[in-house]
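Researcher: Sequence recovery benchmark, item below. Answer with residues only.
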């Protein structure tokens, strides 16, 4: 019986030894897994902090994008306004150019009419000068005839 008890005790010691070895291995595994959990927890905290930073940066970027979009819309609106003003000025310039061409054409027509009137006036003056010269010539001729007639009349001769 003693042998049996010794065998049971040995078996219990062996069991206890295996249990200690198993527990030691489990403790070692648990420590290793705990270290892994701590590392993962630390990584998770880092990821959360990074996500928080990136989220804040995203908000800032979103705000900047909104502001830039608003600025762009204002610039587009201003550009349309300027474009309309430029088009209006182009239309005014076109009207002025048309008016200038019209005025130049009218001026050229007026100058042509003026030149034609000058030519007519010059021609009329030349005709008048010729008439005046003929009238003067005829008057001189008439004066000579009257003088001759007067001389003849004084001399008593009949006139032709």
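Model:
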């Amino acid at each position: 019986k003693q042998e049996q008890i010794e065998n049971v005790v040995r078996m219990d010691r062996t069991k206890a030894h295996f249990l200690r070895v198993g527990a030691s291995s489990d403790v070692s595994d648990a420590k290793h897994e705990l270290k892994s959990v701590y590392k993962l927890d630390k990584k998770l905290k880092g990821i959360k902090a990074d996500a928080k930073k990136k989220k804040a940066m995203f908000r800032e970027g979103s705000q900047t994008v909104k502001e830039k979009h608003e600025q762009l819309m204002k610039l587009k609106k201003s550009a349309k306004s300027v474009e309309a003003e430029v088009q209006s000025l182009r239309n005014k310039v076109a009207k002025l150019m048309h008016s200038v061409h019209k005025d130049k054409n009218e001026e050229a027509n007026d100058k042509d009419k003026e030149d034609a009137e000058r030519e007519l006036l010059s021609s009329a003056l030349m005709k008048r000068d010729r008439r005046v010269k003929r009238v003067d010539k005829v008057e001189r001729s008439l004066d000579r005839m009257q003088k001759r007639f007067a001389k003849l009349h004084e001399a008593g001769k009949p006139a032709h």
